[in-house]
Amino acid sequence: MMATSEHSAPTGAAGLRNRFQTAWHVLPWLVAIVFFFVASGYLSLGTQIMIWILFAISLDLALGYAGIVTLGHAAFFGFGAYVAGILTVRATGDPLIGLLVATALTGLLGFVTGILTLHTKGVTFLMLTLAILSMIYEYANRAKALTGGDDGLQGMSLDPLFGRFEFNIFGHTAYIYTLVVLFLWFLIAWRVVHSPFGRSLDGIRQNPRRMRAIGTPVWLRLVAIYTLSAAMAGSAGALQAYATRFVGLSVLSLFTSGIVAVTLILGGTKRIYGAFIGVTIYFLVQDYTAKIDPHLWEFVIGGLLIAVVLFLEGGLMSLVDSARNGLARLFKRSNRT
């Protein structure tokens, strides 16, 4: 009987940990589903948050996991938005075809630019990413017949999703569509970072010379993750075009790259769930404080960013980790008693 009790305790504790981990993974998606039903007046805000979560995850793959420091990530976000918008205006309003084409072409852009630039590093690479962003921005600005120039791309009319669900002003279809796309990309990102490929990226980020010494194709793996990151950002841009029915030059601005970097730092880099927390906090603070004063949100976000950088090395995600570990210890202690 004693032997049985000795073996059952660890099994019970392990089962409790597994249930706790499962609940943690389910929580963000459960919140998103509940939000759809209880906050119908804020679905456009919820859609924007999910789009930017996807955008932030794409940056985290490159910056957090692979150590690719870039300020030109808006090039992929904006490129995907323009591709989806132009297809909608000039070819087909099918949101599935537009999303797939935008994702594929943006991934191709990431692949080509990655081949051209990833043999450099540091400030040189940083400047090259800014140069690529500036080139795409300037082309979008001058090609008025194609992109609308500084007036933006207008006149987008989307077909109903699967021929049944219309993208109307209430935002129900856009919200669910964005949620599904985010979930699928999340599964891909989670699988990648927890695979041997993802672990090799962590080694490359820490010491690329040592990884080369053991035979790892460092450059090829950086190009691969950069391409995946670009494709994901392109999907986010396409969803942005569909949600707003408008594509302006702001999607290709340095400010857009800065915003996604800030949200990622707030939530915590090299943590997929950090994007969920950082983006949500950013947009909620912006939405609430902007109602008080149009410029107050910048002050609040700036102060929050300074506090996170100074006192929370792992971003706001470190607070969530502390709370989760505390609850796990509490449940474990209560299970023993």
Oligomer: single chain
Uncertain spans, ≥5 residues at pLDDT below 50? Answer: 1-11
Q: Ends: how far apart?
A: 18 Å
The average pLDDT value, as a whole number, equals: 89
* Helix share bin: over 70%
Shape verdict: globular
Describe the sheet with the most strands: none
Count of alpha/pi helices: 14
Based on helices, strands and strand pairing, what is the structural class? Answer: mainly alpha
User: What is the H/E string?
Assistant: HHHHHHHHHHHHHH
- What amount of the residues lies in strands? under 5%
Provide a quick synopsis of the model.
The protein has 337 residues and is mainly alpha-helical. It has helices at residues 2-38, 43-65, 74-90, 95-117, 122-142, 144-147, 172-193, 196-206, 208-213, 218-244, 254-267, 272-292, 296-311, 317-336.
Architecture blueprint of SSEs:
Elements: H1 2-38, H2 43-65, H3 74-90, H4 95-117, H5 122-142, H6 144-147, H7 172-193, H8 196-206, H9 208-213, H10 218-244, H11 254-267, H12 272-292, H13 296-311, H14 317-336
Helix pairs in contact: 1-14, 2-7, 2-10, 2-11, 2-12, 3-4, 3-10, 4-10, 7-10, 11-12, 12-13
Give structural notes.
By secondary structure, the protein is mainly alpha-helical. It has a domain of 224 residues. Helices cover 78% and strands 0% of the residues. The chain has 14 helices and no strands. It is globular.
Key traits:
337 residues; single chain; globular; disordered N terminus
